[in-house]
């Protein structure tokens, strides 16, 4: 059976709650290297991390509160639009080990 190309359709599978529960169930074989990698990226601390920041739009200058997602990794780089003037920004977030975040925004044309 040919499984690529524009006409191929993935078979549909219906999952119930039991399937989803088992997907996250441990199989008893914990992966120490994966756990070490996760511990390094998300070290244990007091469990707090900044969840929002106030930035100034590089276009209109208005202060804007943006949501931060600590689950996105220690360093993040993405595009978000100003909620005041709708211009796109490049947002760079860098989390410190204590959960505080350095946030910078710049216009895409800069």
What oligomeric arrangement do these chains adopt? single chain
Q: For the terminal residues, how far apart are their CA atoms?
A: 50 Å
Global morphology = extended
Give the C-alpha Rg: 21 Å
Which structural class fits the helix and strand makeup?
A: alpha+beta
* Domain module tally: 1
Number of strand segments: 5
Q: Give the strand order of the largest sheet, numbering strands 1, 2, ... along the chain.
A: 3-4-5
User: Helical segment tally?
Assistant: 2
How is the biggest beta sheet arranged? Answer: 3 strands, antiparallel
Low-confidence stretches: none
Mean pLDDT across the residues is 79
Proportion of residues in extended strands = 25-35%
Order of helices and strands: HHEEEEE
Helix content: 10-25%
Task: Describe what you observe in this structure.
With 110 residues, the protein is of the alpha+beta class. The chain has one domain. The chain is built from two helices and five strands, in the order H-H-E-E-E-E-E. It has helices at 17-23, 32-41; strands at residues 52-56, 63-67, 75-81, 88-95, 101-107. It has a three-stranded antiparallel beta sheet with strand order 3-4-5, with no helix packed on it. Strands 1-2 form a two-stranded antiparallel sheet. Strand 4 (88-95) and strand 5 form a beta hairpin. The chain is extended, with a radius of gyration of 21 Å. The relative contact order is 0.16. The model has no long low-confidence stretch (mean pLDDT 79).
